[in-house]
Amino acid sequence: MSILASLQNNRMIPEKYKLMSREELEARVLEVKQKMGARLFIPGHHYQKNEVIQFADATGDSLKLAQISAENTEAEYIVFCGVHFMAETADILTTENQKVFLPDMRAGCSMADMADMPQTECAWEKLQAIFGDTILPLTYINSTAAIKAFVGVNGGATVTSSNAPEKVKWALNQKERILFLPDQHLGRNTAFDLGVGLDEMAVWNPITDTLEYEGDVSRIKVILWKGHCSVHENFTVQNIHDTRKQYPDMKIIVHPECSREVVALSDEAGSTSFIIQMIEKAEPGSAWAIGTEMNLVNRLIQNHSDKHIISLNPHMCPCLTMNRIDLPHLVWCLDMIEAGQEDQIIKVDPKIAENAKLALERMLLSK
Predict the structure, then answer these.
(1) I want to staple 358 with a disulfide (CB 3.0 to 4.6 A). Which of 132, 152, 157, 161 is the partner?
(2) pTM, whole model, 2 decimals?
(3) Within 13 Å, how many C-alpha atoms sit on residue 105's CB side?
(4) Quick one: 247 and 203 in the same domain?
């Protein structure tokens, strides 16, 4: 079944699940987990709600969870508590005997949706006309399987927020320029830290099909796709000024999906795993303002009561699409699996999966 067919076959959650108490829902998850044993595997992304993450067999970022799912060959049913592109990556890396489910098919990613195939093919054609065969594409793991496949076919690789510096350096050793999709902020922050000047970076606007740059285009080394994370872009320079004023001794740590200006003014910047590790290693009594998704920040506050932790933006909301995965949807998905139904299954087209895997393998193997 194609991804489109999966989406078209998606049904709204039956009312009975919305009427169940939390205790009933939790008891049902435990019942199914016990009944299915090793045949069922539930990976949970760091940004998931506590009501869901408590049942995760493994927690982590999207790539780590996809890799763990692939390594867990005993699992026939993988119920991915995350968003659509994450479940796609899990399906690409797992075997034909494993089936990947998404408890709510509406759980997408606004960043991943900011680069589709028609836009990307149009951009590639126009950029080739300007620069010739001098560009290598890279795509953030937060992208659709189709975009990963495009990058794979054109010799590029996927990147994560953890290995982006290594992959950007690798790509710039292959060709004169890179096209970085779909998050301009991660691309800009990574390239800047590697010594690429801001005046050597251009932005490709997929809405207007234009290259945003002033000056001699021959100087361009990095072309940034004009996309962003709707959560991390909401951390601002004003948030930093306000935090510094109220808590002068507080350390500020942010995700590199934040804007260049925010990252530059922060004390630390790094991936979700980096942020978690920094807080875990921090001295008791230390104070931290964290610029990342609110479910994770709240969990860090809960788990590290010996430290003073706040969100960098006091008005930040959790990721809306991540929050679509809740206990009622998880139970509904598990019930359907037990009944032999596959309405919430994620199945990437074999050809797209084959080409996307090229990009994933280059990320893991190339130096």
Answers:
(1) 152
(2) 0.92
(3) 18
(4) no
